[in-house]
């Protein structure tokens, strides 16, 4: 059965594909899995029909036969586990790849989202201008840590951190 | 081989077990897996030896033979995948449980961490008092969405969201 995902009917970034449906679409395209897209409005996302699929009123969701999933990280992991080509076969390499999925969602993304939230919701507050450089620095710090790891000469450390040092 | 995890040598909450090593310890205790704990200071967390294990200079890490992992969500998932009792056997139920793991780390936790960050790092800023209620509301909104899902009468929706509505 062809899975159906949801995406913004009208995106804050004018639909340029930067919302959280993007990694799900990317994973599906990588493995050659056809899929349908159902676009939902911001009003629809807060209605019971969508909240039954996504308790936090967000996109994306993923529906396939009797399976309904939410959370882009979990959806991508499900696609990776049910199609060849996205995760290594070696069990340790696979665990390390999944560690980087959690890092992307719970360590790298949050300071970026915090900055976006300030721009969207606190632009009219008195502190906005003074606080924005603090948020920029938090994003730079996190991306700097990521860059330092990616720059380590042996080039394999993204999926293979040394066990001891 | 008995795994080794890292935890704060000196915790901001005076070691009461609320740091991110807690879910890892909890998972290990649930499955009856013995483990060693290596305590690291804040200075040690930023040194090359620890950064090789944890690129963002955080705890916890997990080492077992030639496998080194970071990210508490990924570590808990690894423990769940290599021991019986934490994840359902049914493949769809398992995918739904993992969706809730990503939800915990990338949807429920971030507004709570944002509030903690403000308390730790912005307490001396002019906007601190005015901004704190906004952060409280963001936490309440997210926890309210979670509570509404958990309160659905059939009681099974944490692991079993309806596929359609």
Description of the structure:
- The structure is a homodimer of 165-residue chains.
- By secondary structure, chain A is α+β, with helices and mostly antiparallel strands.
- Chain A is built from six helices and four strands.
- Chain A has helices at residues 21-31, 42-45, 48-51, 72-82, 91-121, 128-150; strands at 4-8, 36-40, 61-64, 67-70.
- In chain A, strands 2-1-3-4 form a four-stranded mixed sheet.
- In chain A, helix 1 runs parallel beside helix 4 and helix 5 runs antiparallel to helix 6.
- The longest helix of chain A has 31 residues, at 91-121.
- In chain A, 27% of the residues are buried.
- Chains A and B meet through helix 3, strand 4, helix 4, helix 5 and helix 6 of A and helix 3, strand 4, helix 4, helix 5 and helix 6 of B.
Lay out the secondary structure:
Two copies of one chain form a homodimer.
Chain A (H helix, E strand, L loop, with lengths): L3 E5 L12 H11 L4 E5 L1 H4 L2 H4 L9 E4 L2 E4 L1 H11 L8 H31 L6 H23 L15
Helix pairs in contact in A: 1-4, 5-6
Which descriptors apply to this entry?
four-stranded mixed β-sheet, about 160 residues, alpha+beta, homodimer, 6 helices
Q: What is the residue-averaged pLDDT of chain A?
A: 90
Widest sheet, order of strands of chain A? 2-1-3-4
> Shape of chain A from CA axes?
flat
The oligomerization state is homodimer
Count of DSSP E strands of chain A?
4
Radius of gyration of chain A equals 18 Å
| Helical content band of chain A | 40-55%
